[in-house]
Amino acid sequence: MQGAARRRTLRRMAEEEDAGQTRIRHPNREKASSQVAKSFVGLLLLVSAALVAIISLGGWSALQGAYVLSAMYFIVYLVMAYFVMRWSRGVLPMAAAFATALGVFAAIAAPGWFDRTGSSYNNPALPPRLLGLLTILTLIVQVILLIAALVAFQQKWNIEVEEHEDDGGQQDYGGQGQAQPAGAAG
Fold it and tell me: Is residue 173 part of a domain?
């Protein structure tokens, strides 16, 4: 218990000493490619959430118990879009995994919607052919989301550079063995 209190005190003292002298910068977030990737992944997540909602509400009477799964995907995709827009890199592999699973579900479900065009089926709120088309569109969006999330993950949004006002030096954090003391020559 004393060790934790001592560490907090030392951390607070170091922060007070560095106040106004140190700035943390994320150089990879400043790149145009990173900003485009962030916006594109966020947009794809929102489009995916909208497609899941439209298909779920339009085919509600024919979903056969997939209500919880549809609601979960809608909520999770909205939460992931929020975190991506806040530069959270850790959510990108989860987005890729969820896109893979939803893509598999869409590939399996699409032919079923087209098969419902017969007169023996009870029609859902939206025409079955439209729901089938939206399901195929969902599959395409999931493949694009998978690729975009993996590309964005490789951009290393988490790299930090500590800039000191007094000596003008920089110290990198987050790289693989790249951290150097503030005064070291590279």
Answer: no
Could you tell me the two tokens for 110?
A: 């699409």
Burial class, 15, CB count within 10 angstroms (exposed 0-12 / middle 13-18 / buried 19+): exposed
Residue 5 lies in a domain: no
Task: Pick 163 or 145 by higher pLDDT.
Answer: 145
| Residue 138 structural domain | 32-156
**pLDDT, tens digit, for every residue of 81-129?**
999 999 888 899 999 999 999 999 999 988 887 777 666 667 777 788 8
